[in-house]
Amino acid sequence: MNLFRTALLLAKKDLYSELKTKQILVTQIIFAGLVIVVFSFAFDPANNTTKAVIPGVIWVIIVFAGILGLNRSFISEQRNDTMQGLLAAPMEAASIYFGKFLANFSMILVVELVSIPFLFLLFDFKFFGSLPYFILVIFLGSFGFIAIGTFLAALAANSKSSEMLLPLLLFPITTPILIGVVQATKIILTNMEKLPSAIAWIQLVSAYDVIFFVVCFLLIDYVLEV
Amino acid sequence: MSINLEREKAVLPGSGLTETRGENLSKVLFGASAISMLVSLYFIFIFAAEESTMRAAQKIFYFHVSSAWLAFLTFFVTFVFSILFLIKRKRIFDTYAYVSAEIGVVFTIIVLTTGPIWARSAWNTWWVWEPRLITTLILFFIYVAYIMIRQMDGVWDKKARLAAVFGIIGFADVPIVFFAIRWWQTKFHPIVFGEGPSQKGGGIEDTMLVALLVTITAFTILYSYLLHKGVSFENMKIKVDQYKEKLRETLDK
After folding, report:
1. pTM of the predicted model, to two decimals?
2. Which residue from B2, B145, B161 is facing A169, i.e. has the nearest CB?
3. Listed range (A44-58, A135-149, B160-174, B189-203) with the worst mean pLDDT
4. Which end of chain B has the lower number of beta carbons within 10 A, N or C?
């Protein structure tokens, strides 16, 4: 239980400092808004076919806004020279990872909570699908993306150019999640009759989440080694 | 993260590196790969029957499939040596993993270039978004990222550790990528061996199968030669670095 307590403590510390500075969250939300604006230029919102790209746009927003937050999560520790403090503290590397994961995950959930309704509003998208399933897909997809993202952020933080390295590491690894959630979101938003197929995608994404969460827990000791 | 407690390049330790013992092995492997390559050329162009619809264009199939096999084999080798490195922490395992990944990237590029050339004549298009193609492309990106981790600055054991972690994750990811994309869309790529559930594979003629197996063997021998050579190059590089460091130390005094 010690692992969870220290992880929660660490997440609380991260969120508290975020609450004071509001650096990352504000940037993420404004960035998400800008992505929506760029998409309105790329795909005409007045056109009916645009509705077909909405599920993809949701995930592009999450991925890009998520990358911004993930980049900061370990870099900020390094910049303040607190990483050694964390490593020297009487807790396992796994709880550092878990704490960082919780902080990143709650931040991306806030970003989603703001930006997805905003997207639906601006693109005049009428929500027909099932809301619980939609929330489930968003939750599972963000969970997997942030879980592997936090891990790779810890890995990339060793490099001087970690901001450039992280997307290169993260995007190929997360392709199964992105394919799965985009397909599931598309079915849930536009074509509820094919729900069984969406559930199959949700199962794939959940399996990925579980596998990689466990693998990250096992391997984080090697990444956060002094 | 990790503090650079030690110097980036270590001075040559007293014992030195293991002396190059594989001089003969290298020659044997070189000869074997040269001969087997010639033999496989014979099998491909003379022995194997010509495909009825694609004619000579189909000959690229042997190189394409063999390179694809090597691409997956090399990354499997990287995966195995990454695990070994994390357990044993010996530099030689790391060198093997790195060299194997480098060779793998080269063969993945060969697959990704021969593929479109063949596809142009067989399917009349350069590229289709199809499970095996996308998986190979993603595999390529994963291992380019692996090589980029190796290009990071810092002490070698940190880089080796991080690259090993990424090598494991990357390899674990590939089958999932394949299944995800296969679910996403299934078209093209005939199932050649055995009878597929959806497309009844056209099957393969006996002479073609023999030629394919010969080519795959030749490529595998070539791979072992390249791996051996690459590892001895890496070892030389390490040794030169250590000598340089030693020289610098004496100059500093």
Report:
1. 0.84
2. B145
3. B189-203
4. C
